[in-house]
Specification:
By secondary structure, the chain is mainly alpha-helical. It has a single domain, classed as Winged helix-like DNA-binding domain superfamily/Winged helix DNA-binding domain (Arc Repressor Mutant, subunit A). Helix content is 59%, strand content 11%. The protein contains 6 helices and 3 strands; from the N terminus they run ααβααββαα. The chain has a 3-stranded antiparallel sheet with strand order 1-3-2. Strand 2 and strand 3 form a beta hairpin. Helix 5 runs antiparallel to helix 6. It starts with a helix and ends in a 12-residue tail after the last helix. The relative contact order is 0.15. One of its GO terms (molecular function) is DNA binding. It comes from Caulobacter zeae. This is Transcriptional regulator. Keywords: DNA-binding, Transcription, Transcription regulation. InterPro entries: ArsR-like_HTH, HTH_ArsR_DNA-bd_dom, Metal_resp_trans_reg, WH-like_DNA-bd_sf, WH_DNA-bd_sf.
Length: 122
């Protein structure tokens, strides 16, 4: 992952509303959540939700798909795993006990199956 991508992702997550949306989508799993349900769950106005979803999508953290009249949003677990890996890439420098709790978290994310597989470069 390039620094520019990491900065964009971290910037997108550096807002209370967007972080709440992303965490909701991570908890929901690969099936995702309809935009209307996100708005109701987080008590967000539709125009604010739309803007925040666009920022998260532009950063590559979420994906959307249409199902009937609904737009379903889901976390991009590959992007999330890539960001965590990037942040931990040079961790520890000879002191693995520092990063062992973080490594366990990353292993759980990577163990969530095909939905979590990092995107291959296009």
């Amino acid at each position: 992952m390039e620094s520019t991508s990491a900065v964009n992702m971290l910037s997108a997550l550096g807002h209370d509303g967007r972080l709440a949306i992303f965490r909701l989508l991570v908890k929901a799993g690969p099936q995702g959540v309809a935009a209307g349900q996100i708005a109701r769950t987080l008590d967000v106005l539709p125009n604010s939700l739309s803007a925040n979803l666009n920022i998260l999508a532009h950063a590559g953290l979420i994906a959307s798909r249409r199902e009937g009249r609904s737009i379903i949003y889901s976390a991009d677990y590959g992007a999330m795993s890539g960001l965590l890996g990037f942040l931990m890439e040079d961790c520890c420098n000879g002191a693995p006990e520092i990063c062992s709790p973080l490594t366990a978290v990353l292993a759980r994310v990577e163990g969530c199956g095909p939905a979590c597989a990092p995107k291959s470069p296009a």
